[in-house]
Records
---
Amino acid sequence: MAYSEKVIDHYENPRNVGKLDQDSQSVGTGMVGAPACGDVMRLQIQVNDEGVIEDARFKTYGCGSAIASSSLATEWMKGKTLDEAATIKNTDIAEELALPPVKIHCSVLAEDAIKAAIDDYRAKQKHDDAAPAA
Amino acid sequence: MLQYVIHDLGFDYVVVDLTKNYFELFELPVSCQVDQQRLSSQYRALQRAVHPDRFAGDDDRQQRLSIQYASHVNEAFNTLKQPLSRAIYLLKLSGRDVDMERNTIMEPVFLMEQMELRESVADIKSRKNPEQEVERLAGQVDADIHRYLQKFEGFWVSGTDQDLDQAETVVRKMQFMVKLAAELEQLESELLDD
């Protein structure tokens, strides 16, 4: 199976690989896994007070398509508000990377990771509000 | 002994009942544990009986059938031989289709451990004793797979809806470990080549 040029580009030069401080209140972490191929993906966002994603990082153990999908996801999320980022669909990712049908699940994984990271961030804020003032 | 060849009017005819499940096909009890020796010997006997070469001189229909039978028998053998595919098949017999494609949400703790394991595997080559490290990790992964198999068996044997849900989760986790085991094996042979 041939990878598209865009997949190869993201695979060879992945954007935003790395780790943010998981314990920070302004960081949301999304972890997802794909049992079909045993891929694991961690996607993190750093959100400012205005609710804008200032930074995004990922680490993916998986095939080229999974790495490219998460790399592209971090690129797209930066500068977006949480609500805007939440609208990113796996079909957009799959289309942009020209993923073949057998690799669509890699883009699903990336979409789920985006959602999980946003959910994690929002859960932290809620928890923060509920916590009694120290 | 397996009776699959019918001798009639000087010709051999093979009959394999494709509606039988894989366990029945090899005359094995439907179970999580499989007697590998018995599986292998039944497989060899059946494979001999249906081998397309036996029917080289026969009519097209019998030849086509024997090819179909042979691939069915191979598929059955490979499914029962490996614990993971056997577990997935057992769930299928219980009416559960383990959809690996669409299930991405898993326990955070499990995913965290997976992430850490992958990180250690990725670091191995830069370690002082990579061979030892591969062996250590492979041992750990094997032990985990074994543990999952035991858990699976427990859930499968009780067999309530709830238990089967749990069994599905265990199978999904096992899939990650089996993948990791394969990667470690690959890494081990790369290290041997260096």
---
Amino acid sequence: MSKRNPKSTAPDTIDTDLAIKVEDAHYSYPAGNVVALSGVNLEVDKGELLGIIGQNGSGKTTLTKLLNRLLKPTSGNVYVNGMLTTPRTVQEMSAHIGYVFQNPNHQLFARTVKDELEFGPKNIGVEEADIAERVEDAIEFFGLQPYIEEHPYRVSFPIRKLVGIASVVTMRPSIIILDEPSTGQDHQTTRIINSLMRRLAEEGTTVICVSHDMPLLADVVDRVIVMRNTQIISDATPREVFADRELMLTTNLQAPQITEIALGTVTPLGGPIALTPAELADDLENRVKKGAQK
Amino acid sequence: MTEPIVRFHNVTYSYPGTEEPALRDISLEIMQGEYVGIVGLNGAGKTTLGLCVNGVVPSMLSGTRTGEVVVGGLSVEDYPVREMAKIVGMVFDNPEFQMSQITCAEEVALGLENAGVDVETMEKSVSEALELVGLKGFEERSPLGLSGGQQQRLAIAAVLAMKPKLLIMDEPTSNLDPIGKQEVFGMATTLNQDYGMTVIVIEHEVEVLAQFADRIIVMDGGTVVANGSPDEIFGQVDLLEGLGLRVPEATALADILAKRGLWKGPKPTKTDEAIAAVTNLIGVKA
């Protein structure tokens, strides 16, 4: 049964190709009436890889919690796959939108790692054979074979974090939100997360990643939104965002080191706003070779 | 040559109930006043190494430890952790878990109270410690109302109040935004340069280590596999990548070009060094 806000005139569903549509969303936390989000508008296409950056407290996590319906907007509308979230339950939304918490301790509860991976798909009524295949695939992709019979709280924090991600991935939601997936991870596990995001997007999943890990975002996402003081203040490609020194300064964010090197050398000469060392190396090689021909 | 503040001699340690050692035959020295970064994959033994320095291993965690750890001239197994806390302070990645008091001043005073310090000395130490971390004036505020960077600095103030000679930070900024990161590392640099405090930081973000540390220790499978200046260590790109570790992007850039025969000389680790070297390479100033 849908419980409609009697004051709301928003349609229950809209005909859209968008994965997410947020219309003028505001949110205040009830305790102390703290404004966490003011006037946010956002459209995300299906299959898009979106990064959200901003200082702690800028509203990033609040925004993502509106998307999966953990929070209801104080005013404004949030649509996920064309469905208005407010009248629906978190459980209803969980079949459409998966949420990976920053802290895996907030989401893990099963007896073994394997049970944890099976729980989500079982809960939404996926067939046994299909569950087995999804779990097998996740175990292989995340390298969890040595841990499948362990209790999720007996494995190290970084592995537990991968289990948290894997247990959402096995539900195959059409949209996945990752909140700081690489925090506390070493380079090897960060690489797994990097390739996961690419693979999900290739399969058509919409991926939203909240992160302070600028090299990860620079390498993976197509689009970055920058939040500051409860609002979205920029929405552009990673190159445009990281090249905007004024923006980086006012939001106290830092572009990846390689981007800063490019900006201090070849970018003003018409070279790229490099996002990876390989990209800048290619540009420099061309310049050196051209220089030698002259 | 001065006496090192930390000396490991053939240290091997296994956690209780495990057979696989977490540390294997480690020998190393850290001198007073050094700023040391430790890198390695998760599970390489970095945190365990830190726990051997502050005496949690073997005083609070039993397990099996052989070899010798001497910190500040004391053999750690002979002293309880609260005694070692006067020499070594350690902070972790989750400062909010360390907060238990109503005000910042009480938070910082907690360790001193437990050590039985008199009130007058305590008040003085608390205000000094808060000033060192840039939280002067925060005495009566609630720790829970602080930003992540401020909370981490408060956790550091609480260990500094004990006037340790050595500060160990275990992934101190993994939950902080870039400005919080700069705050914590900048503060550690001040403690190191102006007060001669020895700093050991366990950190995955190699660009930050290249900026702040003067020595890098690389751990893998419970052993120390490399130990030297950031330039020496990060310059060994193949070694680090072979271990699944990253080098600063500046160094990775130089390494790619070196393999194409286009980069001569040392590989930079810091942004400004890389900009200067690249400018030199292309012969045009931006």
